Give the backbone structure.
Amino acid sequence: MSKLTGAQILMEMLKEEGVDTIFGYPGGAVIDIYDALQKTEISHYLVRHEQGAVHAADGYARASGKVGVALVTSGPGATNTVTGIASAYMDSIPMVIFTGQVPTKLIGNDAFQEVDIVGITRPCTKHNYLVSDVKNLARTVKEAFHIARSGRPGPVLIDLPKDVVNTTTNYSPPGEVRLRSYNPTYEPNIKQLKKVVSLIRTARKPVIFSGGGVVLSKAHEELTAFARKAQIPVTSTLMGLGGFPGTDPLWLGMLGMHGTYRANMAVTDCDLMIAVGVRFDDRVTGKTDEFANNAKIVQIDIDPTSIQKNIQVSVPVVGDCKISLKQLNELIENEDYADLLEDRQEWLTQIDEWRRTTPLAYKQGEDIIKPQYVIDKLFELTHGDAIITTEVGQNQMWAAQYYHFREPGRFITSGGLGVMGFGLPAAIGAQVGAPGNLVVDVAGDGSIQMNIQEMATAVQYNLPVKVVILNNCFLGMVRQWQELFYEKRYASTQFHHTPDFVKLAEAYGAKGLRAKTPEEVEKVLSEGLAHPGAVIMDFVVEQEECVYPMVPAGAPIKNMLLV
Ligand SMILES: Cc1ncc(C[n+]2csc(CCOP(=O)(O)OP(=O)(O)O)c2C)c(N)n1
């Protein structure tokens, strides 16, 4: 057993947990931690705002499959992380956030840069800790990583008072974590799965509804095999994109407020819904009384508290998505579904008809760039191989609708909280977590200005992230609501001044490009994507374009506005 300071113990534990990357921002309360960190092999990325550190850790976690780690100081450093933590919590992203804290004897005294970050983040972390004794530090770190990555993943925060970090104590690595009240169920109940198999046999109009849980548990291969074997069409949430190939004939497109016509109609009409790794968010269900109300609903999820929370289900299955789908595949392997596939033909034909009725149509004229066209071209030029992060608003929906994701970890978006300013720092994290990949942030001119300062981080670390701004001079998504539901009263959604993004890119040391006409789109994209460093591409697009289809908030999802 050796004697180490709290800061040194923290470094030992980070190594033990396999951490090689941290995103952070220093301050007085964490200066000793930074001093210890400097002496390790762990890479630290100095961001320009603590919110950026947490979104970067989020993007890193999603692109790499590892736990994202952020380190910030006390007080304002800590409060600046809250949006990022809440976003990761809503999207179930594994993350550990270390915050500095004033010395234990000053806690509660309104000391300089003191804030009760444990209290503030209690409702938006999976768990959080204030370490008040250095002897508990190693075990706390071990538990935090275990909780963050196991079961339904999520962010865990550890608050570290300055004296705890400075005090010396005996250190030996803690053993296995055992938490009495926390034992996630990974293995599904086989009887429940057998019920699912028999429901598939009797169903005439089945649908699979896949969510972020499929992406997080990397169950995409199992899901694809399952859907193909049972010939069941698949739709997904925004977070579920990439869990099933967006180019497969069984793919219905996304469900919900901006879902495709065929997905929303199929779910309204289905007689069996197999929901995997979803929580039935209101953006997806619309009016819950009319959501798949002719269907038997199966819900497979690792988190028992999300089952039955918003929607009544017939067959609950608590378990890991990947393990559950693997077992379902084994069960249906022995089923003879040949006759059943014939019965399905009518359903699949109906879906094909819906597919033809209303595709995501738009007309690219000669003068003004349509935002959808930019994403179409981006998909074409990258062959669908890029990692796409998004900001929030119309840009996010167009990215979801027109970039056809084939694999998990390729669409990184703030799904649950919907944070403008997420995309650029998340792109930085994704680029670090999946080096060698092309990473593109699809942005609006509003959102990009929320964390634009992170361009400096990208340039400092030679991270070749590409930003595609769909520049409509509006807070487009809010303007769209005002157009459709407030008789075009555009209250505070128009920007009367926008910076010159090309010059801004150059000021940060990045490359800046602009396209003003449809014929410039491909040229700018090709040049920007091929550039070896960070780039901002500013696309001056149709100002009053809307995202369609659209289901008005709270309406049944079959009530779509189509144009
Ligand atoms: C931090 C934050 N503030 C406000 C909102 C509300 N909001 C949602 S979409 C949107 C407009 C986004 O505008 P822009 O980034 O320009 O993208 P566009 O919709 O035009 O593509 C706003 C203000 C939000 N989601 N996040």
